[in-house]
Every structure is written in C-alpha cells, then in structure tokens.
Amino acid sequence: MSRAVVFAYHNVGVRCLKALIGRGVEVALVVTHQDNPNENIWFASVSQVARDYGIPVITPDDPNAPEVVEQVQACQADFLFSFYYRHMLKAPLLETAQRGAYNMHGSLLPKYRGRVPINWAVIHGEAETGATLHQMNVKPDNGPIVDQMAVPILPDDSADEVFAKVTVAAEMVLWRSLPGLIAGDAPHVQQDLSLGDYFGGRKPEDGRIDARTSAERLHDFARALTRPFPGAFADTAAGRLLLWKTLRAGRAAPTERAELRCADGRLWLHCADGGRLAVLEAELAGQPLTADNFAARVAADALAL
C-alpha cells in the first residue's frame, strides 16, 4: 500500500483527499489551514474529512518550519500531495516524499500559473479552463504534467460555477492518475512555460470597475468576482455600487464611461464601447438596487460609474 502526506484545503482538497482514500492510499497525515474568521468560508472542510477517517491533522502557520518538516519526514511517505493548499512548500518538505511530490492546480497549465487561476480565467473571458496534476519543485506550478482535464466556461458562468466544474475535473484527474503514479509508469511531460503566464493573488480592492472598459470585459469582470467573492464595485455619487449579476444585452449609444439606467422595468448598464448589459442583481450603498427603487435611490436619470 502506498503512503502519502496530504497538504489540502477548500473543495478541491476535500474531493482529492477522498479520491486518495478511495484508491486505497494510506494517508498518514493531513496538513491544512485554520479557517480565518474574517473570511467567507463557503467551501467544505478538509479537517472534518480527515477527522471522519481518523487521519491525524495539523494546522501550522508555517508548513516549512523545521518541526513540521520533521513530522512529515517521520511519516516516511511515498508521496506528498498538495490540493489547493495556500502556502508554497519548500525543498526540505518536497524531499521528504520518497516517490515524488505532486500538486493539483486549477487551470490548464502552463496557462494561469499562480494564484486564483479560475477567477483570472473568467476575468479574461476564457472559453475553457481545467485541472492539472503536476510534479512539484521549488518554483510554483512549473513542474512536469502528469495529467489534465478541460472544462468549459460558458459565456455567463460565474467563477463559483466554474470552480464546481474544476473540482470535479480535479477529482477525475487524480483518480485516473493514481494507478500510474503507484505503478511508477505515469507520464511526466515538461511544460512549455512560454505558452502561459504567472498571475498573483487578488484583494477586495482589485474588484474596482474600470468604467471605460467594454461591455464584454465588464461582464466577465463582474461574473468573475460575484458571490461568494467580494464583488465588482464602483464608487458613485449615490454610494458604492456592487454588480452581482449581469447579462450581455445588445448595443446602445457609446458613453464616455459606463452609466446605469432604468428602462422598461429593468436596470441597464450602458458601457463606453456602446455595449449594453442587463443588470439582474446589484447593491447600492449596502442595499439592493432594483428597477422599482432606482429613481428614489439614484435621484437622477442615470448613475455614472
């Protein structure tokens, strides 16, 4: 029986941990994060899954601390796996795995290396993304690829909807890769890093809308940042506007900058390129904004972003 140490968090962590268990891999230790009380925890708990299966769990602030490396080394694991764990694992940790260390990444590597790859893919209007299992080294997301699976990004998919697809793809990729990893004959294909770029993490402030961008880009931006994420926003004369759900809805006259208007019982966002978005869900100054209350809340014919 193969033996593994697993670093994991989030829904991908939960499903991949269960895939390992389902394939008969002995998980000697799970390393995960303490949930941050200031974060919207909308995803499942790796800690709870480990407890359900009687697997020891630790939640160190620094996984690369000498005492953690020593504890992992003592497990004498064949494999080390990282499934949406948020910290980089340095060489001393990676070297504890006798048969290799592997990461599950939420993109079709080498595209969208780095942080929050699903959100970035939606922001850029990609038609597909996926999950990639690759060997780890000291540089992020650039080791040889074992396997990957694509999933579609539909034109109106939110990042959350895409994340659900990627979670299933990650489980399937790991499930079908494990027999080859255990047997020692899994493919390891070097990445051509020139075919993709590295992207950093995102903060709530990065959700500020560019009011001079096109309707298509603004729609992609809004759906990439909608719930459970902090949202795409603009500070207006009537207060902070949050766009939670939009749909592309034809053309109108170009504007100097995006303007929110009400017509025919609906909210419309007229964009700088002449594109128009139907606004299905929005907030203004912390309260829902609808076609029915637009006039009272905005006190004007249009609200400039």
UniProtKB/TrEMBL annotation:
Gene3D superfamilies: 3.40.50.12230. Transmembrane segments: none annotated. Residues 24-174 form the Formyl transferase N-terminal domain. SUPFAM superfamilies: FMT C-terminal domain-like, Formyltransferase. InterPro entries: Formyl_trans_C, Formyl_transf_N, Formyl_transf_N_sf, Formyl_transferase-like_C_sf. Residues 203-296 form the Formyl transferase C-terminal domain. This is Formyltransferase.
